[in-house]
Design goal:
Blueprint lengths: L15 H8 L8 E8 L10 E6 L3 E6 L2 E6 L5 E8 L3 E8 L38 E2 L5 E3 L14 H7 L8 E11 L2 E10 L24 H8 L33 E6 L5 E6 L9 E9 L3
Antiparallel strand pairs: 1-2, 1-13, 2-3, 3-4, 4-5, 5-6, 7-8, 9-10, 10-11, 11-12, 12-13
């Protein structure tokens, strides 16, 4: 399904509702993507930039540390690692996490830029969002997403990668302010201040709902409460007796050094996150950026 042309142009001075609509729109705004991802801090092995090629639906290649990794389908589907070897050229390590079409694929040069040949074998029991049409605004951005499709792109390292490629979690339960358009690395970008909001009541469903609470786009007190309960404190940080340390009962928020708000930038052409930076707190590992090299349309 090709991207439907808009009947009216995108706003030159976007507001919060425009930012949220763009955050819902990524699955229908591009088909292929070549980018460089740059984390800021993080755990061992996650600090270095990686180069990636995504082809929707369901094919991701990542070049990291001289090794080319291939992920297919929705997360936890299939994975391949290609290594350079003397004489024989390439050695393939395959780790299937459920039946995958990669079991029938041959090797290609790990140092050849770009995507490998398309595997036409469908992933089982998946419905790509590109096969259905969302409810759109007059400018082509998505007002409402259909239920049922498997929205996740293949994952690299953790679910924050999935969320940055489809940042729908920013469209609900997030206070969005100070939206403005700017040029970043030669590309039109919408940047906003984003603050995760807690639910107004238990099971109200109106709070921040990240793709995964352990690795959200907006890491902070709200995501920690989703991950660890009302205290928002990991078990290893809980002192004897079960009471969190600190001046507040929760031990979270500013007392724990969590960011309370972020500057978040969305690339307008693709709808993906290209920059996340905490405005306060001491969790520098929550920042990252993406440099987009090439974008292709939906097939």
């Amino acid at each position: 399904m090709s991207r439907m042309p808009s009947a009216s142009p995108l706003p030159s001075a976007p507001g919060p509702d425009d930012f949220r609509a763009l955050a819902r729109s990524s699955p229908w705004r591009f088909g292929t993507l070549h980018l460089t991802h740059r984390p800021c801090g993080g755990t061992a092995g996650e600090e270095e930039p990686v180069e990636a090629w995504l082809r929707r639906p369901g094919h991701l290649e990542v070049l990291a540390g001289g090794e080319r990794h291939v992920e297919t389908g929705v997360p936890c589907t299939g994975s391949v690692l290609y290594l350079e070897q003397p004489r024989s050229g390439l050695r393939r390590w395959l780790t299937p996490r459920r039946p995958s079409s990669l079991l029938r694929r041959g090797c290609w040069s790990a140092m050849t830029p770009g995507l490998a040949p398309r595997d036409e074998s469908p992933e089982p029991d998946t419905v790509p969002p590109q096969s259905v049409e969302p409810v759109r605004r007059p400018d082509g951005l998505v007002r409402e997403r259909p239920r049922g499709p498997d929205y996740d792109d293949p994952m690299w390292q953790n679910y924050r990668w999935v969320a940055m490629l489809d940042p729908v979690e920013l469209s609900h339960g997030v206070e969005v302010t100070d939206v403005h358009a700017r040029e970043r690395l030669g590309r039109l970008t919408w940047t906003a201040t984003c603050r995760a909001l807690p639910s107004s009541a238990e099971d109200a469903g109106d709070g921040y709902d990240p793709r995964c609470s352990c690795c959200p786009l907006l890491f902070g007190e709200v995501s920690q409460a989703l991950e660890f309960g009302a205290d928002g404190v990991p078990p290893e940080d809980m002192p004897a007796g079960g009471t969190p340390s600190g001046d507040t009962p929760s031990g979270a928020g500013e007392g724990a050094g969590y960011p309370s708000a972020y500057w978040v930038s969305l690339d307008v052409e693709t709808g993906i996150v290209v920059d996340v930076e905490p405005q306060d707190g001491d969790r520098s590992r929550t920042a990252f950026s993406n440099e987009i090299h090439e974008v292709g349309p939906l097939a």
